[in-house]
Amino acid sequence: MEASISIKNLSLSFGALDVLKDLNLEIGQGEFLVLLGSSGCGKSTLLNCIAGLLDITGGQIFIGGRNVTWEEPSKRGIGMVFQSYALYPQMTVGGNLSFGLKNAGLPKAEIKERVDRAAKVLQIEPLLARKPAALSGGQRQRAAIGRALVRDADVFLFDEPLSNLDAKLRADLRVEIKQLHQKLSNTMIYVTHDQIEAMTLADRIAIMRGGQILQLATPHEIYNRPANKYVADFIGSPTMNFFDGKIEGGDGAQFLTEGHSFPLHGYNFQSGSAVSGPAWLGIRPEHMVSGAEAETAPIRLHGEVELVEPLGSDTLARLTSGGHTLWVRLDGQAEVANGDQITVGFDAARANVFDKNSENRL
């Protein structure tokens, strides 16, 4: 796949503070890439560098094979949607959508065609005569997306566009953005700290921390085979359960932790990994089983329930077992209460094992 955006050895420093560190990234034509990470990891900074809103310290940025490292934002062929709607309050929605095109000197007929097309795609045709103050949050964000859409850009950049909206509206607009990408097939880069947005929207996710990309992969790969303990811990709610211990036994490896010995038969070690020494073993709450299934599971734990969170579709239970605190995702109809003694189990094939020192996947 020909790269729509190519970032080579990108670095950005503010004085002695290195914000982005020798970062390399290839984004395919028509790909939906999500930059995901906690606050301060550099994801919005990277997006602003691609947009040309920040001057980089080192490296190069290519869009469509063209070196745009020092080009003005208006010359890069991008459309950007910000966290704040940034609409002109004195203008109507139609005026906001057409303002940049008028400044660019486009013919009136072409401006009208672009505005009408964007309004139809985003289903905001009845709103074109309204001013932003008369719109809901979701309508304002659609108008802001429309303003980027009329530019007819090859690349769209989204900087946490849904973070100001309530949960239901976020879910609704998330669907609309995904459908928009399916209709347009433009390259899109989307910044968020919300893992649900990342998992549901992305073709690939770049997990960032400290100005670097820790893992770049599909949502399925990141969820099931996280590259290191940080990624494993960051993705998933509740977070992955971790056991602190060590691996012994070579080919017939066992994971030893406080009060337990887990056989690692079926675990797919990385090629060349050392299968001995201090390690973490992680298992997701939804990869654990209970009841009759637990009794036949290769690895079994007995514990006492100390907290229950009924969520309707499923039930989360936190239990203590031999000095470990675990989250388990149960069926929504499961009858479990504080103080219950239950057995849970899992298969090592669903687990993740990380080296204790490097925290990289084994």
Task: Give a description of the structure.
There is one protein chain. The chain is α+β, with helices and mostly antiparallel strands and 362 residues long. It has 2 domains: 230 residues, 3-Layer(aba) Sandwich (Rossmann fold), CATH 3.40.50.300; 123 residues, Nucleic acid-binding proteins (OB fold (Dihydrolipoamide Acetyltransferase, E2P), Beta Barrel), CATH 2.40.50. It is 25% helix and 35% strand. The chain contains 9 helices and 20 strands. The strands form 4 sheets. The protein has a 6-stranded mixed β-sheet with strand order 6-7-8-3-9-10, with helices on both faces. It has a 5-stranded antiparallel β-sheet with strand order 13-12-11-14-20. A 5-stranded antiparallel β-sheet has the order 15-19-16-17-18. A hairpin with a 3-residue loop joins strand 16 and strand 17. Helix 2 runs parallel beside helix 4. The longest helix is centred in the middle third of the chain and has 18 residues.
Classified in CATH, the superfamily of the largest domain is P-loop containing nucleotide triphosphate hydrolases
Mean pLDDT metric: 90
User: What structural category characterises the helix and strand content?
Assistant: alpha+beta
Order of strands across the main sheet: 6-7-8-3-9-10
The CATH topology of the largest domain is given as Rossmann fold
The CATH C-level class name of the largest domain = Alpha Beta
Strand content: 35-45%
Helical region count?
A: 9
Write a brief structural summary.
By secondary structure, the chain is of the alpha+beta class. The protein is 25% helix and 35% strand. GO terms for molecular function: ABC-type transporter activity; ATP binding; ATP hydrolysis activity.
